[in-house]
TrEMBL record:
PANTHER family: BROAD-SPECIFICITY PHOSPHATASE YOR283W-RELATED, PHOSPHOGLYCERATE MUTASE. It comes from Micrococcus lylae. SUPFAM superfamilies: Phosphoglycerate mutase-like. It comes from the Bacteria. CDD domains: HP_PGM_like (cd07067). This is Histidine phosphatase family protein.
Amino acid sequence: MSVLATVHLVRHGEVFNPDRVLYGRLPGFGLSDLGLQMADGVAEWFVERANRIQRQPAIVAASPLQRAKQTAAPIAAAFGKKLETEPNLIEAVNAFEGMSNVAATLKSTPSLWPKLRNPARPSWGEPYIQQVQRMVEVVQRSRDVAVDTLGPGAEAILVSHQLPIWVTRLATEGRPLMHDPRRRECTLTSVTSLVFEDGRERPRVEYHEPNAHLLAQAANLPGA
């Protein structure tokens, strides 16, 4: 089965966040030193892939948030590409944004409990289905532009955030969008690849961890 295009969804690297804040869309949360090392590592992974398959990406784009753009910058530079900004790749809205130690805060703050009434939506933030819709719009547009630019087999690289990437994968695989955040397979600078093939209605999913050797050193908040 021939590959029409591959769109890679990359999660950003580790963020400097000593207070373990659920930072969401808050400004001022850039990559840590380890996160910058991760960004360089995922760029090297894509260069090695490009050399192996003899094909460079047509597009490198990122969420407008600092941590995503910092992760994408070495990838774009490695291929001499202009880094594009895609607003629809942004992190999900979350009512608990800005909190640290979220579980304990929720337990001790009854006024916040109504936000937990419907985890299937979820009631504390941007509905999962809306995240999927905006992510899929960028994926499909990037796929089409990549193919128009470089022909069949073209690739695009999109740097985003854990939750939007994960629910996009769930939707692609036909799984329920409601899930346990602790069970997401989407580590820092992981690559979730959507492989579009002729004759298949849905893309095939591949998953890679270019910086697996660094993950034990990293601070990691679900959804961050």
